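>> received
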Amino acid sequence: MGDAWGVKAVESDIGLDALEQFKEFCDGRDEVELASFWEYQKRQPADYRGAGAALYRETSKLLSAELLLEYLETGRVSYCIYSGDSEIPRSVERLSFNRNEVELLQGAVNEMAAGSGALAGYWREAGGGESYGRWRDHLRSVSDGLLRHLEYMRA
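>> returned
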């Protein structure tokens, strides 16, 4: 998977690659459709073919869930692009999605938290004990946040 220095998707090499895809996808768009971004993500970087493809796919799902939760809680997704030595703040202020997409992400995060999939396997083996526990706690927090918003969307 490369290095991971924290429990969030963007706190890993693969997560940073997935975030770069998000930035590329957002470039020049006034509105980002979650489903269209997922289609774009399917064109994963060449580094993640074969055995790495499952890790990339699952990390991308987790990143999508984290970004969606950020949007639901703040009304925007903030990120930076870099030009030379300068860091230029950017944000997505219109993200379109539907309840089904939120449910799919929440379910995927729940499966990871339950120990299913390649990403959970990576964390069990590489992270071990305490790190794996912190990662699962983070996933539960993301899942709970999405669930709160789903309940609001159903009302």
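>> DSSP finds five helices and four strands in the chain.
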